[in-house]
Structure to design on (752 residues):
């Protein structure tokens, strides 16, 4: 009986508490006139669903400076991960004892400790009844007739939330750093999204839309789109987790480093994950390293800023200004480096030879630096500012020169010391004899050392034989063969025909590929310099290499889940590849090959694209490996169309789960008969998207067109898979249509 009474008491208390919380939620969701928040109090205005909150905040680098903003407030997001999505006045910060108020006149104001208005919503003449922080993160002012008279979505800062528009007349600006406003902005210009440095330099463009653009928007399912006045998308970019129903929170942000990224909240890891970014190579973002020098990728794969043309220990890396040199000027040469001016960014471009380009800058008193493009254009880019930045890659087809003062007499001679030497009483023949004996002694010593080193040359690490591993460039690590044997435990852990598992000294797992020393050294080193300079999330990173007599090995990052071929050929493992994962693998591989074909500093053909050369990391993110090895083998016959064909074959294999080349005609026959669902791997358990399947099969068959000239580029393949480009019904692939029926019959019999 006592237990029953306790139950009813507990139940009554819970019921009262739930009603009380419901009442509080209703009160909070409608913010009455006169409501006020103080910087000294830890109070917030919270949306009715609890996902967003508005209140004061301070940054760790400015603890005594406060701003007012909207942040994520969901219980599933830890407090230190509750990202700001809107800030009143952008970079505006005020001191303590300030307040934020919805005045009785219906105006939102941010006032400092003296009551001076620092920011206002500017709608005093409009009849406002109350404010609401809506469930989508939009702070709105409502009139008595329930009409919106002002909303925070119309004054974005550096973030767009799902459903929030960026019209043609609005701009996103990256957050300030070290109390300095950012120069990076995002806006719509000429019917395309553009990332800009200040207003003059555009360093990324989305691509011109097919029709006039009305605004940009982030969709709830993970897409950034440009839409026309009919609200039809005319350009789209899709997140890696596009259409993933398990993602509850997303946002698009122009980050402080100048890159535009789409983020998703991952519940399993309790972290925000970047699922799309505008620029893959951070070093190509304008002024990434300004004012700290030029950008190159460090050993960790992240941008590293160095100052190669100045020895200054100050924060700023300014090019030396040579106008006041006592003697002539000299030029510091920077290989594989492209420089550009910051203030001003303009440069004079002419078309000259390398020598004439260098001489032109030497003769021009105002020229500070010059870059010569040896990519076939012969562009000579002259800069007349000491505010320089740029980027450097081992495969960059550019050489730069920076002026500095040259001293013709670096060592001054004391006249007294010189005259004293002639007054010494030492006989001249003795001096000559001493010099000859000394020379012979050092010659014999050097000869002995040379012979000793010659005998040991096969066991010494040849650090200086790689012509592209300049000290100012960071890239793949050069290993000796003995070091390779150590990190692979003497090649004991074989994970492929010529692939071995290993571990670096810092416990990083790697995969080591043995090329069997079939490549000429110079050609191998050139291939390594190119491969090592490529950075893309869907391309396996080259960690290092070995180039010793009789040995050619490449050290790659390790992919935990192994090759795609391993999953396709295994009855149980293949069940882990849902339709969503298979579709994402297709898109990831397409993006990787498209990057190789069109976005690297050099045009790169894979030449051997197949499921064995696609690996999966711990998140089943696809990464393409063994790209660019055609250079090492001296192959020149492989074309981009071959990569497109191989990609088409791999798509059909991934969809059908069959690795026979004969399957191509059978799949096409079923698709043409309107039975495309029959070709899907039976081990896929639900979740099939018919629209995605149609796009995948259509583009696969176009990739397999008999006429190579009719095959799409990999960039077009990416757009079709993303759904931003329509594709016509394809003709039969490669083989003749007459062979279809017989193959169809054979495969149907096998299936039975």
């Amino acid at each position: 009986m006592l237990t029953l009474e306790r139950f009813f008491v507990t139940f009554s208390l819970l019921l009262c508490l739930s009603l009380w919380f419901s009442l509080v939620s209703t009160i909070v969701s409608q913010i009455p006139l006169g409501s006020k928040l103080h910087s000294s109090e830890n109070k917030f205005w919270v949306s009715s669903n609890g996902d967003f909150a508005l209140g004061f905040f301070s940054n760790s680098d400015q603890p005594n400076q406060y701003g007012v903003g909207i942040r994520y407030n969901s219980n599933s997001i830890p407090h230190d991960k509750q990202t700001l999505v809107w800030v009143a006045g952008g970079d505006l910060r005020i001191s303590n004892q300030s307040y934020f108020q919805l005045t009785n006149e219906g105006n939102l104001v941010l006032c400092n400790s003296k009551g001076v208005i620092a920011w206002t919503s500017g709608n005093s003449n409009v009849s406002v009844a109350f404010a609401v922080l809506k469930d989508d993160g939009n702070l709105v002012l409502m009139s008595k007739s329930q009409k919106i008279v002002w909303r925070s979505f119309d004054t974005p800062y550096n973030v767009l939330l799902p459903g929030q528009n960026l019209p043609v007349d609005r701009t996103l600006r990256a957050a300030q750093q070290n109390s300095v406003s950012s120069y990076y902005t995002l806006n719509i210009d000429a019917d395309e999204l553009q990332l800009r440095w200040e207003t003059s330099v555009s360093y990324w463009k989305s691509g011109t839309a097919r029709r006039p653009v009305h605004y940009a928007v982030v969709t709830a399912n993970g897409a950034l789109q440009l839409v026309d006045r009919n609200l039809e998308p005319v350009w789209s970019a899709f997140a890696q987790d596009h259409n993933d129903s398990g993602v509850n929170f997303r946002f698009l942000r122009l980050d402080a480093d100048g890159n535009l990224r789409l983020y998703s909240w991952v519940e399993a890891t309790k972290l925000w994950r970047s699922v799309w970014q505008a620029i893959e190579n951070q070093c190509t973002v304008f002024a990434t390293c300004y004012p700290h020098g030029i950008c190159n990728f460090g050993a960790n794969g992240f941008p590293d800023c160095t100052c190669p043309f100045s020895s200054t220990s100050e924060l700023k890396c300014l090019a030396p200004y040579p106008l006041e040199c006592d003697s002539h000027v000299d030029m510091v040469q920077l290989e594989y480096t492209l420089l550009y001016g910051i203030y001003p960014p303009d440069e004079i471009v002419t078309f000259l030879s390398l020598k004439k380009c260098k001489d032109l800058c030497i003769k021009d008193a105002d020229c500070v630096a010059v870059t010569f493009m040896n990519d076939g254009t012969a562009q000579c880019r002259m800069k007349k500012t000491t505010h320089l930045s740029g980027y450097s890659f081992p495969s960059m087809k550019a050489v730069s020169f920076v002026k500095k003062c040259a001293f013709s007499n670096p060592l001054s001679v004391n006249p007294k010391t010189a005259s004293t030497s002639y007054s010494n009483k030492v006989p001249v023949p003795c001096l000559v004899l001493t010099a000859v004996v000394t020379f012979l002694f050092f010659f014999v010593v050097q000869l002995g050392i040379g012979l000793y080193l010659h005998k040991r040359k096969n066991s010494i690490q040849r650090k200086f034989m790689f012509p592209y591993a300049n000290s100012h460039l960071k890239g793949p690590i050069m290993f000796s063969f003995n070091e390779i044997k150590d990190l692979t435990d003497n090649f004991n852990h074989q994970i492929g025909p010529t692939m071995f598992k290993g571990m670096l000294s810092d416990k990083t797992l790697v995969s080591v590929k043995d090329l069997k020393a079939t490549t000429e050294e110079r050609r191998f080193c050139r291939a390594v310099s190119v491969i090592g300079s490529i950075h893309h999330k869907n391309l396996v990173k080259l960690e290092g290499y070995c180039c010793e007599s009789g040995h050619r090995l490449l050290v790659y990052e390790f992919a935990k889940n192994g090759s795609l071929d391993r999953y396709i050929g295994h009855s149980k493992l293949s069940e882990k590849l849902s339709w969503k994962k298979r579709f994402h693998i297709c898109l990831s591989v397409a993006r990787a090959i498209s990057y190789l074909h069109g976005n690297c500093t050099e045009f790169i053909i894979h030449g051997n694209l197949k499921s064995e050369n696609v690996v999966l990391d711990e998140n089943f993110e696809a990464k393409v490996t063994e790209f660019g090895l055609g250079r090492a083998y001296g192959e020149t016959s492989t074309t981009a169309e071959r990569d497109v064909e191989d990609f088409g074959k791999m798509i059909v294999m991934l969809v059908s789960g069959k690795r026979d080349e004969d399957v191509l005609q059978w799949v096409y026959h079923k698709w043409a008969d309107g039975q495309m669902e029959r070709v899907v791997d039976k081990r896929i358990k639900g979740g099939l998207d018919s629209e995605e399947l149609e796009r995948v099969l259509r583009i696969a068959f176009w990739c397999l067109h008999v006429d190579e000239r009719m095959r799409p580029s990999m960039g077009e393949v990416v757009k079709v898979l993303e759904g931003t480009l329509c594709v016509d019904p394809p003709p039969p692939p490669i083989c003749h249509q007459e062979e279809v029926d017989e193959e169809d019959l054979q495969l149907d019999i096998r299936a039975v």
In short: Residues 1-27, 408-426, 454-474, 736-752 have pLDDT under 50 and may be disordered.
